[in-house]
């Protein structure tokens, strides 16, 4: 699980980029953060912008579809 707890039980999400990200343009990517019941997805160019919140099952289905499996 990618999260850190801070004072007052506030949970900060730890965002990461795919290992398949294009290294020629490191700011052009999708970032993901995992929480116990939700997978958060955001655009790395707009980190304070809109985010998707998916169930782990929906995220797994998307990854399988995107990977062609």
Write the layout of secondary structure elements.
Layout: E1 3-5, E2 11-13, E3 16-17, E4 30-34, E5 39-43, E6 51-54, H1 56-66
Antiparallel strand pairs: 1-2, 3-4, 4-5, 5-6
What does this protein structure show overall?
The strands form 2 sheets. The protein has a 4-stranded antiparallel beta sheet. Strands 1-2 form a two-stranded antiparallel sheet. The protein is globular and about 30 Å long. A hairpin with a 5-residue loop joins strand 1 (3-5) and strand 2 (11-13). It has one domain (3-66). It contains 1 helix and 6 strands. By secondary structure, it is of the alpha+beta class. Residues 1-10 have low confidence and may be disordered. The longest helix has 11 residues, at 56-66.
Total number of strands: 6
Mean pLDDT: 79
Report, as a whole number of angstroms, the end-to-end distance: 24 Å
Report the C-alpha radius of gyration, rounded.
Answer: 13 Å
Strand order of the largest sheet: 3-4-5-6
Shape: globular
Overall structural domain count: 1
Helix/sheet category: alpha+beta
**Main pleated-sheet profile:** 4 strands, antiparallel
SSE pattern:
EEEEEEH
Bin the strand percentage.
25-35%
């Amino acid at each position: 699980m990618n999260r850190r707890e801070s004072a007052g039980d506030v949970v900060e999400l730890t965002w990461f980029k795919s290992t398949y990200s294009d290294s020629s343009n490191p700011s052009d990517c999708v970032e993901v953060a995992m929480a116990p019941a939700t997978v958060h997805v955001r655009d790395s160019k707009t980190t304070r912008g809109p985010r998707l919140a998916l169930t782990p099952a929906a995220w797994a289905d998307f990854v399988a579809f995107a990977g062609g499996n």
